[in-house]
Amino acid sequence: MKGSRLKVRFCTNESQKSRAELVGQLRRLGFDISEGEVTAPAPAACQILKERGLRPYLLIHDGVRSEFDQIDTSNPNCVVIADAGESFSYQNMNNAFQVLMELENPVLISLGKGRYYKETSGLMLDVGPYMKALEYACGIKAEVVGKPSPEFFKSALQTIGVEAHQLLSM
Q1: Reported pTM
Q2: Which cofactor does it need (predicted)?
Q3: Which residue in 78, 92, 9, 7 sits closest to 45, CA to CA?
């Protein structure tokens, strides 16, 4: 595909690794890919945060934290939640809950809504159940940034200047 005149964009729902780490893994497997060719939920969320002047409480995996290095997290006025793995503790969930409940117009941004995924050790809860718990407790609806959100795919198309009707999905 890269040898053709087609514009290529890789979309992933990966929310435990930074794009740099993911691209490194793919390169070791023989893929010719750069960070700029990857659309992932964390950078898409960062764009939303910057555009809207939001300062998040981050309930995310340490592996993706570097994607948020340029984001102001002081005095949070929203919550960003992702597959946080071991960071999904009662204390961290309650902190996110408290941030949301203190806001007049609470904003919950989720980097996905999967129910579970499979690891070598077995099935693991994904971000979806935790997102739903915060939605229920706070009486709000999360904004999902990542697959299957249409906005996620639109952001990928915008970066390469392609309209949806010109898309070839593989």
Answers
A1: 0.88
A2: Mg(2+)
A3: 78
